[in-house]
């Protein structure tokens, strides 16, 4: 009885007194316990990693939000104006980022009798007689002077934006003036990088522009060529871009006086200087000009000669004759027109304009352009297709504004309007849709018999609204220079006006002003070139107001 009772109560045991069933299942339980322990430890590591990552993210956000200060964007005033009394201005105005705040600044050249408008600067500081010429840099944000510097008693040539001039990392300006000197200046500070005597003959005239040429003295800095006219013959001088030293000798080029010159670069990268006067254009290899200046037959390896152009050269006269098919009229402008693989050459004459292939010199098209009023401007009427904007006088103080397709010479858009003797060059601004806004001056009126003096107004046109003009601003002062500038990359599109006297016999108030385009668009007058739709005037203003501008086409 006791045995049966015991058997019911206690399970069977092995000789060690342990259950057989337990012996069979224990390894499985131990393995299960180990797996559970491993998963538990892994879960703890995952949790720790999650909270550690979260802590690091919050720390970084906190640091950038409160500890590390964000860069302060300079506040650009929508409009500003700076005036100088008893001054005379030159036909010079350019923009570049002088103080490195990512906003374009304005450089201009003035002539004044004293330094009252320039803080403590005076002509005597640089040993010049008064009046003298001052180069000044104005902040693009508010028009305040960043630096001002007397540069010459009278300036014959000034060019800025020259990269690595004097070996600096930024850009610089070249000033050639009287008394006889050529000066390189740092655009950021106005400090002199180097100054030399030019060595020009006493009675000379500088032919613009300054030519930036390949490095010829082996210092990895581009050098400078200046062309001057002395007794109806051209002379050329080369100066080292690093220190201003003369390279070569003072030699006549054997070329008669020319109206102007232009640097053209062929498909192979060869540089040719095109001298023009009357209806003729003569192309000289830079390598040949260098050989004449230096007085040697050897030519540095930095100068290439294009085989196609050299094959067209007239060895008797020593140059490449460039004879457009439409040869009537005097050459007024030579303009670089970018093509798909190389630059083409727009020859603007007093009677006809013609586009030449920049490599073969074959005529691509020509168009009658009698009485050109201003230098043409390049922009985009269609996406990715370059256009040329021209202004042609048509009599009775009226002009025709035309936009030409550079690939075919076809007129894409045209408009007739009044104009005054003060007619600034048209300009363009690239827009975010790969086209351009075209800005020009005049007076649009449907009254063709009006005898009143035209009132100069600024207009903006965009090909997205081909039947609409916006009249932005009128101006009663004589405009010396006008330009449209993107003061900040991809934003803050403005225009700049320089007004004032340009002759020393009659000094007066010189004014330079910047105005944001959107300010004038808001209050602009909408002009319908087709059927008027006054109900949509505000929609048109908003369309132009929302327009975005691009630094590149």
């Amino acid at each position: 009885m006791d045995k049966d009772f015991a058997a019911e109560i206690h399970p069977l045991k092995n000789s060690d007194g342990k259950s057989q069933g337990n012996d069979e299942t224990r390894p499985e339980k131990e393995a299960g316990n180990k797996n559970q322990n491993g998963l538990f430890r892994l879960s703890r590591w995952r949790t720790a990693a999650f909270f550690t990552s979260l802590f690091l993210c919050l720390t970084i956000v906190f640091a950038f939000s409160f500890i590390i200060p964000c860069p302060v964007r300079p506040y650009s005033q929508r409009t500003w104006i700076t005036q100088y009394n008893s001054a005379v201005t030159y036909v010079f105005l350019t923009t570049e980022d002088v103080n490195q705040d990512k906003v374009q600044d304005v450089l201009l050249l003035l002539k004044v009798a004293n330094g009252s408008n320039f803080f403590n600067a005076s002509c005597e500081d640089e040993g010049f007689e008064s009046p003298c010429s001052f180069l000044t840099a104005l902040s693009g944000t508010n028009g305040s002077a960043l630096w001002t510097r007397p540069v010459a008693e009278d300036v014959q040539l000034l060019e800025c934006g020259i990269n690595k001039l004097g070996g600096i990392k930024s850009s610089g300006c070249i000033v050639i003036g009287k008394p006889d000197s050529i000066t390189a200046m740092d655009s950021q500070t106005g400090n002199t990088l180097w100054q030399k005597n030019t060595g020009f003959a006493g009675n000379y005239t500088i032919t613009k522009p300054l030519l930036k040429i390949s490095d010829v003295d082996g210092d990895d800095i581009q050098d400078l060529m200046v062309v001057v006219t002395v007794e109806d013959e051209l002379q050329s001088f080369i100066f080292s871009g690093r220190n201003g030293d003369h390279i070569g000798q003072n030699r006549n080029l054997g070329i008669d006086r020319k109206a102007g010159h232009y640097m053209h670069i062929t498909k192979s990268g060869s540089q040719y200087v095109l001298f023009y006067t009357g209806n003729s254009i003569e192309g000289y290899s830079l390598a040949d000009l260098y050989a004449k200046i230096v007085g040697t037959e050897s030519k540095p390896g930095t100068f290439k000669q294009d085989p196609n152009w050299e094959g067209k050269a007239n060895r008797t006269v020593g140059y490449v004759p460039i004879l457009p098919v439409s040869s009537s009229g005097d050459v007024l402008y030579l303009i670089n027109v970018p093509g798909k693989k190389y630059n083409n050459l727009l020859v603007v004459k007093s009677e006809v304009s013609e586009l030449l292939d920049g490599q073969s010199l074959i005529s691509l098209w020509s168009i009658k352009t009698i009485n050109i009023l201003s230098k043409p401007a390049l922009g985009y009427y269609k996406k990715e297709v370059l256009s040329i904007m021209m202004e042609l006088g048509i009599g009775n103080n009226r002009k025709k504004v035309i936009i030409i397709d550079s690939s075919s010479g076809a007129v894409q858009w045209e408009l007739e309007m009044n104009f005054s003797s003060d007619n600034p060059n048209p300009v363009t601004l690239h827009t975010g849709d790969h086209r351009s806004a075209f800005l020009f001056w005049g007076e649009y009126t449907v009254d063709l018999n009006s005898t009143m003096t035209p009132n100069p107004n600024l207009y903006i046109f965009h090909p997205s609204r081909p039947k609409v003009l916006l009249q932005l601003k009128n101006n009663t002062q004589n405009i010396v220079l006008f330009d449209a500038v993107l003061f900040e990359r991809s934003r803050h599109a403005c225009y700049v006006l320089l007004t004032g006297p340009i002759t020393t016999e009659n000094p007066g108030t010189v004014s330079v002003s910047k105005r944001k385009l959107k300010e004038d668009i808001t209050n602009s007058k909408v002009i319908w070139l087709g059927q008027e739709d006054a109900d949509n005037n505000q929609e048109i203003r908003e369309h132009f107001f929302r327009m975005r501008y691009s630094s590149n086409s």
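The chain is about 15% helix and 45% strand. The CA atoms of residues 9 and 38 lie 38 Å apart.
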